[in-house]
Every structure is written in structure tokens, then in C-alpha cells.
Write a structure and sequence with these properties.
It is built from three helices and twelve strands, in the order αβββββαβαββββββ. By secondary structure, it is mainly beta. β4 and β5 form a beta hairpin.
Length: 166
């Protein structure tokens, strides 16, 4: 099997994105409340930062029309999507203001919460750092809700789940 080596840059942007796609990630939907109402965005740039204090991060793209609302939000909620929530993840990837098809509720912090997620992290804005063409948004976790289930996975531009192993 042959390997390909390259230096990331404008002329290798597609190859770089393909290489990044080799790493499977979970799928999240992040929500916040704005002056216009609830707002959501689907993201796979999510990870734990610290246990004490409990910190998480995610990275909205600077070019996203939803970027500024999330970077300036006082609170936000990260929902880890279950493998049965593909439709909801795709819905909020294309339209972050359309909550009319979702039975959402408001958290104690005032953020929209979505039903059926396998994990939900209610966060307070902790810090925001520049990260190239994204912002690195760090939240301090105030509350966690979980349920049993398998996560929705994104890899090589495709969504999927886990296979049972025998």
C-alpha cells in the first residue's frame, strides 16, 4: 500500500480535508437563545478540555452566519446526537432557526434543549480563542444529562453508527 505525503495549503486543501475525514467523530448540535429566538448549529468539532473545572470546546467556522451569535452567547448547550437522530442533525446543519419541528424545552440557564440526545452538556461561556478560520469556544459545564444509546458518527463525509460485534 502506498502512502501520500503533502504539505497542507491552498493547492492541497481537498487532500487535507480528506485526510482529516479519516478520523471518525461524534455529531453534536449546539443550541443557544438569541434575541430572535432559539438557534442551533450542527458540529463535529467537540472535545473535553478539563475535568477540574469541567470544560468542553467546540469550534464554529468564522464564515458561518451563526458564528457571532454563538461566540457572543452567555450560555449554550451541546447535544451529543444518538444514531437515531440523523434527521435532526441534518436539519440543524441547514437551518439553525427552524425549531418548529422539534419538541424543545428551555434549560435552567435559558438555552434550548433537544429531546432524545445521548448526552447533553449545559455550558456557560468560559473563553473564546482565535483558531484560524474557526473560533475555539470553551464552555464550563454546569449540568450534564445522559441516556443509554449509541452515538451518531461522522467519517469520510458520511454519517453512520456502530456495528454490533459478536
Amino acid at each position: 500500500m502506498s502512502e501520500t505525503k503533502f504539505i497542507p495549503g491552498p493547492e492541497t486543501a481537498h487532500a487535507y480535508r480528506t485526510a482529516l475525514g479519516c478520523f471518525g467523530t461524534g455529531v453534536t448540535v449546539i443550541t443557544t437563545m438569541t434575541d430572535r429566538g432559539p438557534l442551533a448549529i450542527t458540529a463535529n468539532s467537540f472535545t473535553s478540555v478539563s475535568m477540574a473545572p469541567p470544560l468542553l470546546l467546540w469550534c464554529p467556522a468564522n464564515r458561518s452566519l451563526r458564528h457571532d451569535a454563538f461566540v457572543n452567547a452567555k450560555d449554550f448547550t451541546i447535544h451529543v446526537m444518538g444514531e437515531d437522530q440523523l434527521d435532526m442533525a441534518k436539519h440543524f446543519a441547514s437551518n439553525g432557526e427552524a425549531f418548529d419541528t422539534v419538541d424543545w424545552q428551555t434549560s435552567d440557564a435559558g438555552t434550548p434543549t433537544l429531546p432524545g440526545c445521548i448526552a447533553r452538556f449545559e455550558c456557560h461561556h468560559y473563553a473564546c480563542h482565535p483558531g484560524g478560520d474557526h473560533s475555539i469556544l470553551i464552555g464550563e459545564v454546569l449540568s450534564v444529562t445522559t441516556r443509554p444509546g449509541k452515538g451518531l458518527i461522522f467519517k469520510h463525509g458520511l454519517y453512520g453508527g456502530f456495528l454490533e460485534q459478536s
